[in-house]
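Annex B. Sample input.
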Amino acid sequence: MATKIRLQRGGRKGYAFYGIVIADARAPRDGKFTEKIGTYNPNTNPATVDLNFERALHWVECGAQPTDTVRNILKGEGVYLMKHLRGGVKKGAFDEAAAQKKFDAWKEEKNKGTEAIRNNEAKAKKDLEAKKLEAEKSINAAIAKKVNEKKAAEAAAKAEAEAANAETEAAVEATAEAPVEEAPEAPAQEATEAPAEEATEAPAEA
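Annex B, continued. Sample output.
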């Protein structure tokens, strides 16, 4: 029976999550499998791999053939490196302690690289959030400026209206308080008629 190490899709639409399984090469991609040896989540940076290292190494040494993607995953986890080191131990090139030391040194270097990627990702995310916050502050400042300008304009218009009203009221009050001039009285009629009567009566006495 040809044995494959491959991915079995899970998760949900738009968020694929995979199991790393041992299956018969003739079985459907997401069908029955012999053993599940880990999971693979490509949605993180870097991708998250949870692998049963010993079982993966066992199946690789037994001749199970991984798909291209799974081969890259196993290489990234050091499965093929350990297989190579064990081959060196069997050939007498070095002992198991030396092999383990080499593997641990490789693992430490890999972890440093992974940690650097995660730190860069966190920094980039933090910088992006800072830029978004700064943009929001700029927008809020612009809105506040417009509101203040509008309020200042309304206050100025109100002050002008109140000043105009005050001037109008002052003018009305000044007009109401101004003295009214009286027309001169006409001379009495009796005073005008008296000399005429005297002039008429004078010839009669002569």
